[in-house]
Amino acid sequence: MSPLPSGLLGDLDPTSDRAVFRQIADQLREAIDRGRFHEGDKLPSEADLVDHYGVSRMTVRNSFSILQGEGLVHAEHGKGVFVRPRPPVRRLASDRFARRHREQGKSAFIVEADAAGSHPQVDSLEVKEEKASPDVSARLGSVRRVLARRRRYLLDGRPVEFATSFLPLDIARGTQIAEPNPGPGGIYARLEELGHRLDHFEEEIRARMPSPAEVKTLRLASGVPVIHLIRTAFDGEGRAVEVCDTVMAADAYVLSYQLPAT
Amino acid sequence: MSPLPSGLLGDLDPTSDRAVFRQIADQLREAIDRGRFHEGDKLPSEADLVDHYGVSRMTVRNSFSILQGEGLVHAEHGKGVFVRPRPPVRRLASDRFARRHREQGKSAFIVEADAAGSHPQVDSLEVKEEKASPDVSARLGSVRRVLARRRRYLLDGRPVEFATSFLPLDIARGTQIAEPNPGPGGIYARLEELGHRLDHFEEEIRARMPSPAEVKTLRLASGVPVIHLIRTAFDGEGRAVEVCDTVMAADAYVLSYQLPAT
DNA sequence: CTTGCCCACTCGTCTATACGAGTAAGCGTG
DNA sequence: CACGCTTACTCGTATAGACGAGTGGGCAAG
């Protein structure tokens, strides 16, 4: 409850049109931007700010909720409000599915994370046959039922990505693709062994705020959007052989693409 | 102030651990998901919900603020709270910079929007020389000063994208690239005329919540993230000849990429 | 010294109230 | 009919207070 160091935060402008709680949010944001608070630092407590500005607690909380929505800070019950640290990001290059990366036994995710010095994990493995959603059905060319492979990826214990692959039953049923462990090189290697030489991929990218279910699965802080990526894999005959629906914590990813100028 | 149609929203569960304002948000979200409220529909007013649930107004407002953060609804002062309509999306295909699209006179944005039946606009045009940021400088290969071309794109009057192109001065200075109107085919056509035949592009994609400045420029509703795309164009000699920094309203875009399976 | 409790501090939830300001419709006046 | 006012309804902002619950340090008992 010690008073705030003077000069750290300014005063309110009573003549301003800007709402008090916005002014407070502005000052905190600026202090963070200027480096007066660093990643992981604790901001002044609600009580501190109530004293400093002479406003009610709800007003201060209102300010914090703005910054939370911007993804700048996060509150921890019983501890305080902290500047949200930027987690290490995972870069996804557009050649990540190149055939040469498929030769080794381990999955691309594991190899790459190990190389980056992180501890990778894959869980929530679920493999089952199910009815195709209208969207998946359309992408796979009017299939009714599909094989769905769901898994969640974690980096150093933090969930960063949730992915589901959908494959037509006439391709996947009875093969190793339908097994929890698809073997070295993953399902793409198996698809090629089955005669579906991969020709190209199509990826659709959206960004949006997460659903409550996604917040839970990815343990997302408030103010963190998700990147929603839908990849369709085509074989040499132009047939869609897999649709992969991926939801990623946006603060953990940078996608990178190489495009020919053709 | 007429009572809510019964059955539209349920009751609270006082035995639940879940906070009251979350329960209310859950019920509203579910009602929206189930189609009881459609895009653009007005939700029950704060006063309606206060009566219906027997809670205080701040609790109801708290519920609305959750849904607002999720990008599901938006409030209009004096009118009510509405289900946020999904705006028409602009699809960006990875071949959008293909040479064949550059032959016509009009810019890709205008052509494409016209074709989609929308009314395109470009404003905030600013062209000037300035100091390169460390990031831009690194991408362009240690240049100190650059030509910056800023513009904002609007679709049917709504700002959807804000982009800045940075070009090395030794390439752009004194050419038509430094003019407000770069001529038919845009700056890429001019670059090729200047002997920089474009070889490939590299695009980096991030998603995050917008800064206050971005909220203003793009007139973003709360709960709408931005897609941040940084494209670098390389000529045949492997030199980076342009960096384009683009911030897009995420609810207005789907990015689409074709990748070879190599 | 170790264990366990208490307490101070933190954010989380909720109530009740007040006034301001934007919107739209109705109504009366000119 | 047209204009402007009133009024009711809407969300926005802010205050003051209460209790709950998670956290961590200090202190006292064993």
From TrEMBL, chains A, B:
The keyword Nuclease does not apply. CDD domains: WHTH_GntR. Keywords: DNA-binding, Transcription, Transcription regulation. InterPro entries: Bact_HTH_transcr_reg (IPR050679), Chorismate_lyase_/UTRA_dom_sf (IPR028978), Tscrpt_reg_HTH_GntR (IPR000524), UTRA (IPR011663), WH-like_DNA-bd_sf (IPR036388), WH_DNA-bd_sf (IPR036390). Residues 18-86 form the HTH gntR-type domain. Pfam families: GntR, UTRA. The keyword ATP-binding does not apply. This is GntR family transcriptional regulator. It comes from Streptomyces spinosisporus.
